[in-house]
Design brief:
about 55 residues; alpha+beta; three-stranded antiparallel beta sheet; 1 helix; binds zinc ion
């Protein structure tokens, strides 16, 4: 098992896995987690993933 959210693996993603988080609007964060928000599948950062999980 490889670490799917770290290192070499994320460099194959768009912009090396970095971008603006659609949830918290922070820039150049690593968007590693797929989450459905308002019916749309988006990639969010680790912090947002934790926030959403805590709410649920
Ligand atoms: Zn975020």
């Amino acid at each position: 098992m490889s670490k799917s959210h770290r290192g070499k693996g994320i460099y194959e993603l768009i912009r090396q896995g970095r971008g603006t988080c659609p949830h918290c609007k922070r820039q150049a964060v690593k968007l590693l987690y797929e989450q459905e928000i308002e019916g749309k599948k988006v990639h969010i950062c680790k912090i947002c993933k934790a926030t959403i999980q805590n709410k649920a």
